[in-house]
Amino acid sequence: MAAQGLSGFYGSVFRRSITVRVLIRTTDGRVLMLRSGNAWELPGGVVKGGEDPRSAARRIARATLDPEFDVGRVLVLDYVQGVQGQADSIGFLFDGGMLSTSVTSFTGAGGEWEAGFIPLADCGAADEGLRGEWGAALEALELGTMVELVNGEPVSAGPVAAPTLRRMMPPLEGFSGILGH
């Protein structure tokens, strides 16, 4: 049963999480991936309260690479519908630009995570959580646009038609408008 009233509305809004990831590439075709545990992932995390997605992406990239690092445009926006009591989430994938480096790997401060520059062709297999987003990110980079996904699948909006003209009031006999035209 759907929640009703303001408590239902606020309950549904505040159950959504917002995450960000940053796609940082090298000039020779590698992508920065982080590993904490077994899985390799793009640098990313949760947007904190009072923080916008771009600021969160910038914070994460700066903590990973350089205190002066900045992020570019949004490449992918993915709305993931929660299932079986899990909350919905919204994920942003930002363009972190290109680096010129010969470094292949490094370890984060305190040894909390390992970082590696992985060939782009191997990244989709390395990051299980981004399988649908890899193709969308590459398409967005190539076309200079943003790709919208729902549950990791592209949204096929089709052609957008102009909205139809709607009258606020039904026509009145003998009256042709406010100014009498």
Automatic annotation (TrEMBL):
The keyword Hydrolase applies. Residues 17-62 form the Nudix hydrolase domain. The keyword Translocase does not apply. InterPro entries: NUDIX_hydrolase-like_dom_sf, NUDIX_hydrolase_dom. Coiled coil: none annotated. Keywords: Hydrolase. Pfam families: NUDIX. GO terms for molecular function: hydrolase activity. It comes from the Bacteria. This is NUDIX hydrolase. The lineage of its organism: Bacteria, Bacillati, Actinomycetota, Actinomycetes, Micrococcales.
